[in-house]
Specification:
The protein has 8 helices and 17 strands. The protein has about 325 residues and is an alpha+beta fold. It has a 6-stranded antiparallel beta sheet with strand order 16-15-12-13-14-17, with helices on both faces. The longest helix is centred in the N-terminal third of the chain and has 23 residues, at about 70-95.
Amino acid sequence: MAIGIFGTRHLPVPDAVWLEPGQRVTLDAEGVSWNGTRLEQLDALYVHGFRYEDPVLPPADPVCDWSLWQAGAVIRQQSYSFLYSVWARLEQLGGPRLYNPVSAELAAFDRPGPLDRLARAGFAVPPLLTGNDDDTVAAFQGRYDGVVWRPVTGRAAWQWFQDRQRRHLVGLGKPPVLLAAVMPGPLLRVYVLDGQVALVLATAPPNREGVERLETMIPVTDLSPAVLETIGRAVTTLGLRWAMALVIDGPDGPVFYDMDPDPELGCLPPPFEAHLNRCLAAALAGIALPAAPFGPDPLERPALLLRRMLAIQFDMEQSKYSR
């Protein structure tokens, strides 16, 4: 089985074709040749780190002097557009199995979009509102005991939304924010491959009692088969083979708050990262996902040794979880 990997070198996949920047690439009527390998003939291709972005606007770069013309921005723009064409052509050709197709990245660019599509497909999502009108936002906020917010694009944590957040975030001339009512139940990160749940993690927030610690990840193994099937089906409904679903395990089933089509794993405790890498390798090879080799014990995210130096960061991080 021929497997290609773009953008990462940590998957335990023997004999994989590594697609790296700077190699010879051509796009023709038949498909794509990458350093001599015909990508349309691969069985599976994992694309990591390629996220949809506006190809016209240059990305923010704090060390770049934009008072001078920057040829590098144009080069990056053209490289990005070419890669977009490569992934789009492979998707149009119907092969290889893409983790994930570029259409999935495009569809996940605006975060309200996937939630709306899930709701229309019959999956549970919380009451949602996107806007910058203070009166409408205040009315929405008043209807629920708890409301959280996040930006409408990109990766972000859901954070408590109260009057002080509304005064700072909401108003004419400010970008709209996405609001959601807080539903009952624990918040879970669910990693899904080809419709199968590979790992479920609950998260305890950072804590300064005793020795400071970052988030603690707790494996969850008692979700019912019906809940696992519903989450896997939701990911597949969005055209995703690989995703992290952020859900609340509610009394009537999972409630979906987010869907990440290219989750980062380096921020997880190493055993969880290693397990998901093995699961990705198995999915690419078309074999059964391995069972988790660890028990239900919680694991802390890696942190610096001199934790007392992180006091300010802990104060800032704790504010995300405090009301």
